[in-house]
Amino acid sequence: MNDTFGRPIDYLRLSVTDLCNYRCIYCMPEEGVCKRPHAEILSIEELAEIARAAVQCGIRKIRLTGGEPLVRRGILALCRTLRAIPELRELTMTTNGSLLPQMAGELKAAGLDRLNISLDTLDPARFAAVTRTGRLEDVLRGLDAAERAGFRGTKLNAVLLSAEPADIRPLAELTRTRGISVRFIELMPMRQSLTLPERCFVGAEYVLRALPELIPEGTDGVAALYRLPGAAGTVGLIRPMSCSFCSRCSRIRVTADGMLKPCLHSADEIPLRGLHGEALRRAIQSGILRKPAQHTLGRTHGSQARREMNEIGG
Fold it and tell me: Residues 29, 30, 36, 41: is their CA dihedral positive or negative?
């Protein structure tokens, strides 16, 4: 289905929880979030019903997000259910990777096609400071477990928080021997991230300065791709601040409490909970048609979203 600006909308980011075992400085308050009653969060059955209705509206790719989706009870059953939808071409997940050592094999067996793993630094002390509760070794073990389980095309998402080459190059060097894509993402001014110092808002051009040997490799979705000479994998740049890609946006989002967001940075939300059949499909179609032409995000005027990132889904 196309939106009113002619963009084909075929990608759903489906949040299964707003809870996370990390407290990343740009995503959640240090004290975490209050655990909501189960009744306020979509059940596994409701998530599956929304996914099936979205596929009937033209969605062909679903990414499961959180919070941290692997803390959600029933996540494997949800993966199996969604993978059984005939028209769904790709089922992926964004995770912090800390629980992959235990779950990677089961996720692959449940039908998950690909993983995006959040990893902002390879410095253990900085990793602990950014995540507040995480250990770098858990994520690295998770990356290894994903490879052993047979996941290919894994993407590492690194939020740019520093312009220092010493913080950028080690992540890029992971692509030398691994067939992965390390994607550097510009920090967006959203609620929690607005409390961070100005130096944390780093433009993607600093990656090119830190890695002058990068060779352009085209694009993958919203990411501009590059490759280190002879590397097995790629380096990606995602620039929501310095190079808007709204004209190519193909996604909608559904929050864990059942609100469809036509745009990440808009305050607009369409309630889906309690709807079924044709009413649910009409609501999803309405959300697609309400996608704005572009966001109004800027360093001096932050996101209009009324939620923290963990409440929306990465």
Answer: positive
- Do residues 253 and 312 touch, judged by C-beta distance below 8 A? yes
- In 3D space, the residue among 105, 112, 63 whose CA is nearest the CA of residue 84 turns out to be 112
Residues 6+ positions from 175 with CB-CB distance below 8 Å: 181, 182, 227, 228, 231, 232, 233, 234, 235
The residue with tokens 């890029």 is 172
User: Which amino acid, 28?
Assistant: M
Place of tokens 């990132």: 309
Q: Does the 11-312 domain belong in CATH 3.20.20.70? A: yes
What tens-digit pLDDT sequence spans the chain (314 residues)?
999 999 999 999 999 999 999 999 988 888 777 778 888 999 999 999 999 999 999 999 999 999 999 999 999 999 999 999 999 999 999 999 999 999 999 999 999 999 999 999 999 999 999 999 999 999 999 999 999 999 999 999 999 999 999 999 999 999 999 999 999 999 888 766 777 888 888 999 999 999 999 999 999 988 999 999 999 999 999 998 777 778 888 999 999 999 999 987 787 899 999 999 999 999 999 999 999 887 666 555 555 656 666 777 76
Whole-angstrom distance, CA of residue 75 vs CA of residue 71? 8
Residue whose entry in the numeric block shows the structure tokens 């100005």: 198
What are the domain boundaries of the chain?
11-312
Burial (0-12, 13-18, 19+ Cβ within 10 Å), 147: middle
Q: What is the chain's percent helix, strand, coil content, to nearest 5?
A: 35, 20, 45
3-state secondary structure of 159: strand
Partners of residue 156 on adjacent β-strands: 117, 182
**pTM score of the predicted model:** 0.93
| Three-class secondary structure of residue 169 per DSSP | helix
